[in-house]
């Protein structure tokens, strides 16, 4: 078993004037070491296309999660979805990526634009085997995974962008590869890479997409532990125990909260050095403690991180802000969203007297709710989360 894991992120835009997207992505964890990703594109757009793509992705992902072979799944779908008598094309096309033990990718492609694989910063021409199942031509590939591999799957709304405007025949696959290659070494998350590509697709459509467009990116990377300390323990006698456990953990260390940072500084025998620089007027300044990677204010900063996390799981429109800003919330976002794969929360249950002012909208329950919301959001991003209370 290697130390690799998959960062998976996807985003869609709807056909102009449509409320529903005709594309659908499903991600199913078969077990700790196997993940199935299905991107389905329903014929046309609107409600009919949405139903067809959702049905396709759900059938495939459910069957594979139940242990059926790829051949059985594809044959079922191929037999279930007929060819449109008017257009002569399938009612739904699909791309399947099955990651096995974080060592191999099993890729099945039916009528979607061919999957792009960036390896070592270059386009990798992976082998493809042509199969005929139920009268449909399907391509299958088995690819041994390497660290930093980036898989980019998309619906045909992406290469169709710009037809008749920016490009005569749309945004060709080689153009998309050339656009994404410079981003290989930047370190963006899979979700952000999908957002960057889809933003360009939206621009090429003149902000009026002529088709549904979806991008699903899978980034193979090494596991990276991260630790976040938030709040002092309910029993002051547990301070040393909490700190020793926190600082003994592998990976970077984030300390949130004024009282918490004071306890951490005392444990390390180092002073807290506040910066007093308001980079973002909504986020309190950060501080510095030798031996700690990041020191921030508590509730207000973590609340902002939760706000960015909600957006990240949705349209990811705020990534341009937190990906470059130097305020405490943005720095936490980059560490948790981009760097970390396994995150340990150390949460103190002590009640802060400063939060008991009835004029302040902060109380103990809000603090606990923030921890719950943030950990749930990070789980949805594919992170492994462990929360320890003191």
How many discrete domains? 2
Radius of gyration: 23 Å
User: Could you tell me the strand content as a percent range?
Assistant: 25-35%
**What is the general shape?**
elongated
Q: Pick out the low-confidence regions.
A: none
**CATH class membership of the largest domain:** Alpha Beta
Q: How would you sum up this structure, described in words?
A:
By secondary structure, the chain is an alpha+beta fold. The chain folds into two domains: 4-222, PPM-type phosphatase domain (Phosphatase 2c, domain 1, 4-Layer Sandwich), CATH 3.60.40.10; 225-389, no CATH class. The chain has ten helices and 18 strands. Strand 12 (225-230), helix 5 and strand 13 (252-256) form a beta-alpha-beta unit. The mean pLDDT is 88.
Helix-strand blueprint:
Elements (H helix, E strand, L loop, with lengths): L3 E10 L9 E9 L2 E9 L4 H19 L4 H11 L11 E9 L3 E7 L5 E4 L2 E2 L5 E5 L2 E9 L5 E5 L18 H8 L9 H15 L8 E10 L2 E6 L8 H10 L3 E5 L1 H11 L4 E2 L12 E2 L5 E3 L2 H15 L5 H4 L5 H12 L2 E6 L16 H17 L3 E6 L1
Parallel strand pairs: 12-13, 12-17, 13-16, 17-18
Antiparallel strand pairs: 1-11, 2-3, 3-4, 4-5, 5-9, 6-7, 6-10, 8-9, 10-11, 14-15
Helix pairs in contact: 1-2, 7-9, 7-10
In short:
By secondary structure, this protein is α+β, with helices and mostly antiparallel strands. Helices cover 31% and strands 28% of the residues.
Essential attributes:
2 domains; alpha+beta; Phosphatase 2c, domain 1; 18 strands; 390 residues
């Amino acid at each position: 078993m290697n130390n690799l894991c998959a960062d998976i992120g996807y985003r869609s835009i709807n056909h102009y004037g449509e409320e529903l997207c005709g594309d659908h992505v499903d991600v199913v964890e078969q077990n700790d070491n196997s993940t199935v990703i299905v991107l389905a594109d329903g014929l046309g757009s609107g409600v009919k296309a949405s139903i067809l793509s959702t049905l396709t992705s759900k059938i495939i992902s459910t069957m594979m999660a139940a242990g059926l072979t790829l051949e059985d799944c594809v044959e079922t779908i191929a037999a279930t979805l007929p060819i449109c008598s008017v257009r002569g094309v399938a009612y739904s096309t699909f791309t399947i990526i099955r990651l096995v033990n974080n060592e191999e990718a099993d890729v099945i492609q039916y009528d979607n634009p061919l999957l792009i694989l960036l390896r070592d910063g270059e386009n990798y021409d992976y082998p493809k085997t042509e199969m005929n199942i139920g009268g449909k031509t399907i391509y299958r590939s088995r690819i041994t995974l390497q660290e930093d591999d980036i898989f980019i799957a998309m619906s045909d709304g992406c290469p169709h962008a710009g037809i008749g405007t920016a490009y005569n025949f749309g945004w060709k696959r080689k153009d998309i590869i050339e656009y994404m290659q410079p981003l290989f070494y930047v370190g963006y998350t899979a979700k952000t890479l999908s957002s960057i590509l889809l933003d360009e697709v939206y621009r090429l459509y003149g902000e009026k997409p002529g088709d549904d467009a979806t991008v699903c990116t899978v980034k193979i990377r090494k596991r990276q532990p991260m630790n976040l300390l938030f709040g002092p323990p309910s029993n002051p006698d547990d301070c040393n125990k909490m700190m020793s456990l926190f600082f003994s953990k592998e990976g970077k260390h984030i300390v949130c909260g004024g009282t918490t940072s004071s306890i951490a500084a005392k444990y390390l025998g180092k002073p807290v050095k506040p910066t007093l620089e308001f980079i973002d007027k909504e986020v309190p300044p950060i501080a510095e403690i030798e031996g700690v990677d990041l020191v921030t204010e508590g509730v207000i900063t973590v609340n902002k991180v939760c706000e960015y996390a909600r957006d990240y799981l949705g349209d990811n429109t705020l990534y341009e802000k937190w990906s470059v800003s130097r305020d405490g919330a943005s720095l936490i976002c980059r560490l948790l969203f981009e760097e970390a794969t396994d995150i340990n929360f150390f949460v103190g249950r002590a009640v802060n007297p400063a939060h008991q002012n009835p004029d302040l909208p902060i109380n103990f329950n809000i603090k606990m709710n923030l921890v719950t919301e943030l950990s749930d959001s990070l789980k949805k991003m594919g992170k492994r989360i462990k929360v320890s209370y003191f």
